[in-house]
Design brief:
This protein has a domain at about 1-75. Helix content is about 90%, strand content about 0%. The protein has helices at about 1-35, 40-105. The N and C termini lie far apart (about 80 Å). The relative contact order is 0.03.
């Protein structure tokens, strides 16, 4: 039981440290904006949002490109597999036709190579 209490206290301390850290970061941002007027703050916030949006867009494009590359590779693999299967089926069909021709021509028992 005491282990659970200690664990809960440690988790609470970690959470408190995280909250204090985030608050410190926000306080620093507020402090930076304190010396400027409203328009400057607004413009800085807008510029920051634009930069972040551009970063997110680039990340999304990169992820989409990676996904497309993977899909294309999977498609190429599937096409190769299907071609191999088609070749095998075609060879089997040709073999069966040739065997039928040989049997009908009286060449029963001959091996087709």
């Amino acid at each position: 039981m005491s282990d659970k209490v200690i664990e809960a206290v440690l988790k609470a301390e970690e959470e408190a440290e995280r909250i204090v850290s985030e608050a410190s970061i926000q306080a620093e941002e507020i402090k930076r904006y304190q010396d400027t007027n409203y328009d400057e703050n607004y413009n800085k916030i807008i510029m920051s949002c634009r930069i972040r949006a551009e970063e997110l867009l680039k990340d999304a494009e990169r992820m989409a490109s990676d996904r497309v590359k993977k899909i294309m590779a999977d498609c190429e693999d599937e096409i190769a597999r299907l071609r191999a299967l088609a070749d095998k089926n075609l060879k089997n069909a040709v073999y069966m036709v040739l065997r039928e021709i040989m049997e009908s021509a009286g060449g029963v028992g001959r091996e087709i190579s």
